[in-house]
Amino acid sequence: MADKPAKPTNSPEGAAAGELSALEEAFRKFAVHGDTRATGKEMHGKNWSKLCKDCQIIDGKNVTTTDVDIVFSKIKGKAVRTITFEQFKEALQELSKKRFKGKSDEEALQEMYKLIEGKGPGLTGVTKTVASPTVSRLTDTSKFTGSHKERFDASGKGKGRAGREDLVDNSGYVSGYKHAGTYDHKVQGNKSYIWR
To answer: Where is this region: Disordered (predicted)?
Structure first.
């Protein structure tokens, strides 16, 4: 059994195949971002714009958000709202001419691939919790008063249903009686004392 020799990774064909797989992986990450039903094979215009912003394709001078939207509209079909991976590569080729003006078409396209490879959607502008004294004062259960205080035990853990509802005590004792359950001890104690 003779194995075929592996292609060297520094050959142009091997490098292009590696770049395309990394490029396709980035395409899939951005294609599914924010859409639970997305398969990763088609990308919406919103995700295309996000990819261009997150990967610094939009530089503000040569390529703007308007350019990105125009290229997307030109590449996609008339009645379609998404682009495939092949159309995505066409759109990158179109934008690479604008983004890297001083370079040849092939060099510009390779630079564009380098900007995208290995990247994924970023979470910019995500709301973060703020630890302020006002919030901590409002959530400190040891400072609760009245009926709210009854909903938590001494450690601050909620009592659950017992803290929300008045549960009926069917033990036979008055609700404020402190020595519930001691009657049998008293009676038996007194009987043993009497019989002696």
So the answer is: 146-165
